[in-house]
């Protein structure tokens, strides 16, 4: 049984696919990377994809402010209140640079601190995911003409013989290792970018712990997909992960993604 995205979601999917095409065009070249002020890498693909998404969002919903990673890194962060977009035009820049394919385009809409709409697109894998509160979550693989047959996804109950855990490929830390020692782990796999959220949402993994630093634009789209698929994103203290944390510089605390 297929599932149909809402008109807003269709617009956001089109934007994500357009950004993905630009990213893949640059991926095929001998691109270079530079370091931002926080020493994280950025490429021309990050900047080109962001330009496409910001231009598109201005056409779709000009009244809703947008916080986007590269603009934020340059100090361009608008005042936001109960409704705003969060964008990571190229989540997993390290994966992009290493050419392992595990990078995504992330677009989310937040209302009252909760990501209610999100699309995650992995252009190298041609796999896309979306989630919308009150509608559901879906995944699909792009055909040659970029058409997608969207199939509903849902988190799965954790198997009694242990969890399949997905962890960061580029940001594993001792806190994660210590946490894993205290739970029943059947298998452990690594993935880059917001694909980790999507694997849990699709029932392909049971748990994603993240104790290292993330920003709101890293997580909002994947969070929306997980929530719409019936999952949870909770802080280490057991509270729902929320958005619009200007006083923290839009920095997330550690969190755990689960069914």
Number of domains: 2
Beta-strand residue fraction? 25-35%
Write out the CATH superfamily name of the largest domain.
Answer: Fructose-1,6-Bisphosphatase, subunit A, domain 1
Q: What is the first-to-last residue Cα distance?
A: 22 Å
The CATH class designation of the largest domain is Alpha Beta
Per DSSP, the total helix count is 7
CATH architect. name of the largest domain: 2-Layer Sandwich
Q: For the report, how would you describe the main beta sheet?
A: 7 strands, mixed
Order of helical and strand elements:
HEEHEHEHEEEEEEHEHEHEE
Report mean pLDDT, rounded to a whole number.
Answer: 94
- The total count of strands amounts to 14
CATH topology of the largest domain: Fructose-1,6-Bisphosphatase, Chain A, domain 1
3D shape: globular
Structural class: alpha+beta
Q: Which spans of ≥5 residues are poorly predicted at pLDDT below 50?
A: none
Q: Which radius of gyration do the C-alpha atoms yield?
A: 17 Å
Q: Helix proportion of residues, in percent?
A: 25-40%
How do the strands of the widest beta sheet line up side by side? 3-4-5-6-7-8-9
